Amino acid sequence: MQPSKAVKVVVVGGSVGGLAAAHELSAVGAEAAVYERSAGRMQARGAGVVMQPEVEELLVRLGMSARAVSVELRERQQLHLHVRPFRYEAPQLMTAWDTLYRALRQPLSGVCYRLDSELRRVRVEGSEVTAEFADGYTTQGHFLVGADGIGSATRRLLDPSAHPSYAGYVAWRGLEPESALPGDLLELLTGRFTFFGSDGLQMLCYVVPGPDGELAEGSRRVNWVWYMNVPERDLPRLLASRSGKSYTTFLPPGEMLPETAVELAATAEASLPPQFARLVRCSDVFMQPVFDLPPHRMIADHAALIGDAAGTVRPHTASGTSKAFADAAGLAVALRGWAPGQDLPAGRLADWERERLLHLVALSRAGIDLANRSSLGTADSRRFFVSV
Ligand SMILES: Cc1cc2nc3c(=O)[nH]c(=O)nc-3n(C[C@H](O)[C@H](O)[C@H](O)COP(=O)(O)OP(=O)(O)OC[C@H]3O[C@@H](n4cnc5c(N)ncnc54)[C@H](O)[C@@H]3O)c2cc1C
After folding, report:
1. CA 166, CA 127: separation in Å to the nearest integer?
2. C or N terminus of the chain, fewer CB within 10 Å?
3. Inter-residue contact 232 to 386 (CB < 8 Å)
């Protein structure tokens, strides 16, 4: 490695957590380079994201306001099967994964961001970390950050004992252009965070910016999530795809089998308020099973894990993204002032790990409590798509 005054950090994973890490590390004088597995345009997995203070704080430091990348809601409403919705005032900002990705990616035009870079191996020799990728490319740095999500290769290399486990329920999802939905349905959903819950299921919906960050009415998207208890043994058939590709953690839009779509529409008719059943019918549905990855460790020698790679929180906390941002911000503070050739700031890194693990454990518990209260993932509640 060429002698350099700045600490070189290899960031594995170029989603929102990896981009936040690149910003935070650059802000403390490190030279970050991002390596992302996706070969082409990043596929939007996250859909809607509830704006949280940690995300807002980084956007402001980058010269943007949270409002510039969000749709503002006025109230919440609870739908019911047979009576009128119950509404109350609750202002909130909602954004989307692709809107945030663009907002963070654009200011990093001078930073190395290499696509088609799937991490295969990490070697630490003295004070040098070498990352090897599937295409044979290698790179060196003084430190490595694993921001490579729930299936993290970095974590498998550092801590092979940690494995995600299925939480007992899936999230069916939709992200439809406002222009594709009937006017009366849009009128009901616009400006509101809408919920419905019953035994073994919960559905929620809100409007987010359009695919290019559009905020004008008519060009935004309606984001919905329908959580539903599903036995683990039925996951493979629900994740089976039209293209024949094999998926284990995410079934993308356009890939659902026709027979699954028919079963889903029938379940919607039978168990959702008519407005939500209509929304499901109008949507190109995709699916994510919900997994738990209990937090264990975040530091190993010259490497750290952040975001979902370090541990997941249930989506009901709406804080997966903000947790990744706060992990990145704290890590950068721990590395501030460290120069190549010096010993690692081990005490500061250990403090960072302790503080973040405490936070992650508390957030994980809060998420499981929220799910339990909605009878999601609990053994005695209703289950759907049960094969006979
Ligand atoms: C149903 C559902 C709803 C959710 N709703 C919300 C919400 O409202 N708000 C919120 O904040 N969070 C939400 N989340 C959580 C949120 O999606 C994640 O917590 C967040 O995206 C974590 O970001 P990350 O950068 O750590 O990981 P990811 O976004 O998973 O990114 C990991 C990146 O690493 C890349 N990668 C993977 N392996 C490799 C490799 N070997 N080499 C190189 N690159 C690799 C991937 O391609 C990907 O780009 C939700 C999650 C689910 C399941």
Report:
1. 38
2. C
3. no
Atom from ligand 1 closest to the CA of residue 153? 41
Residues 6+ apart with CB under 8 A from 183: none
**256 and 332, same domain (yes or no):** no
Q: How far is the first Cα of the chain from the last one, in angstroms, to the nearest whole number? A: 60
Q: What is the pLDDT of residues 115-140, one digit of tens each?
A: 999 999 999 998 899 999 999 999 99
**DSSP class per residue in 88-142:** EEEEEEEEEHHHHHHHHHGGGTTS-EESS--EEEEEEETTEEEEEETTS-EEEES
How far apart are the CA of 29 and the centre of ligand 1, in A? 26
Ligand 1: distance of its center to the CA of 86 in Å?
33
Helix, strand, coil abundance in the chain, percent, nearest 5: 35, 30, 40
* Predicted local distance difference test score (pLDDT) of residue 102: 94
Is residue 3 over pLDDT 60? Answer: no
Task: Give the mean model confidence (pLDDT) for residues 144-152.
Answer: 96
CATH classification at residue 17: 3.50.50.60
If one counts every other C-beta atom within 10 angstroms of the C-beta of residue 152, the result is: 25
Q: Collapsing DSSP states into helix, strand and coil, what is residue 46?
A: coil
269 and 217 in a single domain? The answer is: yes
